[in-house]
Amino acid sequence: MSRVLKLILVVALVLLSAVSLTTAQDEMRPYRIVVVTHGQASDPFWSVVKNGVDAAGRDMRVTVEYQAPATFDMVAMSQLIDAAVASAPDGLVVSVPDADALGDSIRAAVAAGIPVVSINSGSDVAGELGVLAHVGQTEYEAGLGGGQRMAAAGATNALCVNQEVGNAALDLRCQGFSDAMAVAGGAVSVLAVDLNDPTGAQNAISAALTADSTIDAVFTLGPTGAAPALLALEEGGMLGSVKVATFDLSPEVLQAIVDGNVLFAIDQQQYTQGYLPIVYLTLFLENLNTPGAVLIPTGPGFVTQETAATVIEYSARGTR
Amino acid sequence: MAAENTSKPQADERLRRDNPLRRILRRPELGAIGGAVVVWLLFAYLAGSRGFLTLSGAATYLEVGAQLGILSVAVSTLMIGGEFDLSIGSVLGASGMTIAILSTQFGWNLLPAIAVALVLSLGIGAINGFMVIRTRLPSFIITLGSLFVVRGLTIGITRAITGRTQVGGIKDAQGYDLAVGLFAHQYEVIDPARIPRPGAAPITADFPLSIIWWVILGALTTYFLLRTRPGNWIFGIGGDQQAARNVGVPVGKVKITLFMFTAAAAWLVSTIQVISVGSADALRGEQREFFAIIAAVIGGTLLTGGYGSAIGAMFGALIIGIVQQGIVFAGVDSDWFLVVMGLLLIVAVLVNNYIRKRASEAS
After folding, report:
1. ipTM exceeds 0.90, yes or no
2. Which chain A residues are closer than 8 Å to B329 by Cβ?
3. pTM higher than 0.90 for the full model?
4. Strand pairing of A63-67 and A217-220?
5. pLDDT tens, B176-224?
6. Is B317 helix (H, G, I), strand (E, B) or coil?
7. How close is the nearest chain A Cα to the Cα of B154, in Å?
8. d(Cα A204, Cα A247) in Å, to the nearest integer?
9. A112, B200: Cβ pair inside 8 Å?
């Protein structure tokens, strides 16, 4: 028995110390910044955020550690934040998709004197949480802008495809989109899909389009919703006749914009959401510099057919 | 055995006293307790200087272990009885959302809302059990079905009532303080190992009440399994259902009760979560069913039924808590958490099999 246990212990020790050794480097500033987000690993959006975090860690010469729960689980995420706070980092970066569930953990970090920057979701609660700054876009306004563009392009009955049910930020996007469409006299219905199951999502979108032939626009809340939507349209022979727009970029989405199959993509430049907090926190730790405003917007920007071709190469290397 | 007996006069085999070491080796929870010590030592070595050994550190992995442990104790009991419940993660979400909607949308006091959620959860458990008995389909299939049905209903009904999938504001509901006292009290201890930054308040470690729920539930379940007649029935049903039925064990009733027990455990965890975080989410509890099963298996519970322990499941959950949180302290990207989890499951089963084989050969 003991031989087997010993072997396991040794292998585990070697593996873990190898991992921790590779992250240590000379000439580093003595700061450790922990990033805890809600981004599921299968969502390409969050890989770009992580690329931004890693690049800023290299550029600022600080240690960065990236954590996210395995599923969209706010209780698990609050526990990760608690562990991060207990490890007494020099700075903390969090996304806040559910302020009720995460607020206590974030306030505990602030109370312990750890400077916190929130990113991505949570612009509406950043002030009351006591964070240094919030780096991200305001979701409702971004959805509203998307709805206005969609209505101006002639959409009257749209489908809003939500790939991460439970994320308050995505609900706000659909809400803003619906409100803008309603002002223009259009209608919106919401469809929930599973971002881990693209085939299921494609079938759900196909079914919704078949069930209501008056749907003339599909608005997806991320690339993981856009790809199945495009496949569903292609299969149903509706590519081009049904307008598509999406939040956030991916190489596939950009190619579809170039080809004219997607009208526009709302870009919140998530690379900067990963990069800027590390810069701000380093400056705060070095100089006690603070950003001039709590809210530092990274979007919404709109990528259309004119700009897509240039953005495409950046997206391919994981920075857009 | 043969060597022992030739030197001594032949004693009645039923009265033979086992070597105490062998008896310990045969206990299903041994692997999990040893594993918890090994994993804890591992992270104490890797991340001891980075907060893992502080009281705040202990509070975070004990909280994870406690919430998962409440589930895994019930799941291991059901698995000893030879059945699976994949629906508990969904029941967790549905129960939490019931509390949230009744208290925030309909203005109920939290306590009756929590009671209704309990009745609902017990109902789902009873339906699961009844369906398994009636259809004679594997419980894997029945509860896989209810996993999706319950999750889908939770998402659909929540959106129909609130237009969203996430309901907050529970901290403003009536009866919140009493509910906190019952389910989510935090015992604050000033953490001597951590010095606050200049100007900040002293750092406290918050030990949640759920740890006590976990220990009590584990102790009661262990007593019930090992010292009562219905406890014995559960082992009997899991070992050989037909034989158990032949000696008069009410197999159907016991199984339905076991399914209600896992659902009730999901209700307890959902209540703890909703009260402590103040919001409910239609997706909450996703994959918890698998983590609870992994914890039970790490704890020495056999997938085929008839063998296992609640204490083992408690420690299995503690191992998962230590790994999940320890990775944060060690500064390893959480991308690797699932890898460690999967390997841990396989290693635990191998070690358990090995120990059991050696122990039964030795006797």
Report:
1. no
2. 83, 86-87
3. no
4. unpaired
5. 999 999 999 999 888 777 776 666 677 788 899 999 999 999 999 999 9
6. helix
7. 11
8. 19
9. yes
